[in-house]
């Protein structure tokens, strides 16, 4: 049996922690890197602050001896695969990529030939190659696609969704070249049930923007219609049920009162099929 591969997950939030725990279950030796000391202390104590990871599941991961939460940059050394799952919040209508840049610079200091780096954070097309790849190369002196593998795979975590979990949601994957794509696929094939390869990181990044835009537009729309429906309930008590008979209209079931938590949205893409009991794949 070969040596256990080392995985570093940059960020232990609602995306990074489930990935880290799942990777432990898949056999990886995992460092969950987190800059928030309080989070590291809680994880070390066996307390999960992420909805999808119970304390018991976290304890099982810790008991293997292959999950180590850490804020020490030295623990990044020797990784085989690293996944960046840090936030990219909007500030003044522009994405703040400072966390991504910081993660790339730290990983660059530990990067070695043949290692794989994957970005999962939501961002604009070009970030993986033009920002992350460039910073990794600048710090390490290694070239993406030549000395190390680089790819993008957008996170699709839907917190609290027991049906579409990290494992069961199809994972879009990409690489800067064929070897990088193969490395990214090899990693996620051990983590999720199905991967969907696209031609380039830019295509995968654009896919994520499309998904998020679709959610924003449809949640906003359905919330406005919900407000109108409050005044039309006597006329149309089952508005969505009637609309679903069309078979084409896109419906959203969302229990928020504004744009709210996007992850609460449930997408129905083929409403006639759903009404007839057919299985529907989520985007």
Radius of gyration using CA atoms only: 20 Å
Q: List how many beta strands DSSP finds.
A: 12
* Largest β sheet strand count, sense and barrel closure: 6 strands, parallel
Q: Report the portion of residues in β strands.
A: 5-15%
Enumerate the spans where pLDDT stays under 50 for 5 or more consecutive residues.
250-283
Strand order of the largest sheet: 3-2-1-4-7-8
What percentage of residues falls in helices of 4 or more residues? 25-40%
The average pLDDT is 85
What's this model, at a glance?
The chain is an alpha/beta fold and 283 residues long.
Fold and architecture overview:
The chain is α/β, with parallel strands linked by helices. Helix content is 36%, strand content 15%. It is built from nine helices and twelve strands. The chain has helices spanning 16-25, 37-44, 55-63, 98-108, 127-140, 178-188, 201-229, 239-244, 271-275, and strands at 6-10, 29-33, 67-70, 81-84, 90-91, 94-95, 116-119, 149-152, 171-173, 195-197, 251-253, 266-268. The chain is globular, with a radius of gyration of 20 Å. The two termini are 38 Å apart.
Structure characteristics:
283 residues; alpha/beta; 6-stranded parallel beta sheet; 12 strands; disordered C terminus
Map the helices and strands.
Elements: E1 6-10, H1 16-25, E2 29-33, H2 37-44, H3 55-63, E3 67-70, E4 81-84, E5 90-91, E6 94-95, H4 98-108, E7 116-119, H5 127-140, E8 149-152, E9 171-173, H6 178-188, E10 195-197, H7 201-229, H8 239-244, E11 251-253, E12 266-268, H9 271-275
Parallel strand pairs: 1-2, 1-4, 2-3, 4-7, 7-8, 9-10
Antiparallel strand pairs: 5-6, 11-12
Helix pairs in contact: 4-5
């Amino acid at each position: 049996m070969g040596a256990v591969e080392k995985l570093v997950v940059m960020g232990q939030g609602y995306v990074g922690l489930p990935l880290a725990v799942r990777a432990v279950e898949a056999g990886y030796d995992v460092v969950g890197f987190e800059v928030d000391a309080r989070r590291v202390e809680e994880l070390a104590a066996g307390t999960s602050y992420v909805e999808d990871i119970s304390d018991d599941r976290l304890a099982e991961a810790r008991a293997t001896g292959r999950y180590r939460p850490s804020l020490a940059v030295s623990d990044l050394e020797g990784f085989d695969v690293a996944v960046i799952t840090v936030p990219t919040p909007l500030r003044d209508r522009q994405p703040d990529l400072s966390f991504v840049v910081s993660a790339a610079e730290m990983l660059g200091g530990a990067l070695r030939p043949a290692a794989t780096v994957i970005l999962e954070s939501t961002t604009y097309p070009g970030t993986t190659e033009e920002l992350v790849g460039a910073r990794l190369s600048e710090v390490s002196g290694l070239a993406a696609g030549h000395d190390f593998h680089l790819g993008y795979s957008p996170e699709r975590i839907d917190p609290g969704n027991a049906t579409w979990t990290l494992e069961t949601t199809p994972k879009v994957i990409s690489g800067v070249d064929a070897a990088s794509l193969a490395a990214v696929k090899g990693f996620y094939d051990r983590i999720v049930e199905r991967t969907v390869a696209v031609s380039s990181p830019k295509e995968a990044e654009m896919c994520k923007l499309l998904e998020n835009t679709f959610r924003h537009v449809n949640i906003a729309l359905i919330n406005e219609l919900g407000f109108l429906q409050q005044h039309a309930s006597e006329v149309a008590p089952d508005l969505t049920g009637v609309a679903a008979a069309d078979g084409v209209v896109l419906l959203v079931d969302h229990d928020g009162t504004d744009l709210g938590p996007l992850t609460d949205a449930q997408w129905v893409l083929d409403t006639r099929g759903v009404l007839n009991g057919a299985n529907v794949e989520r985007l």
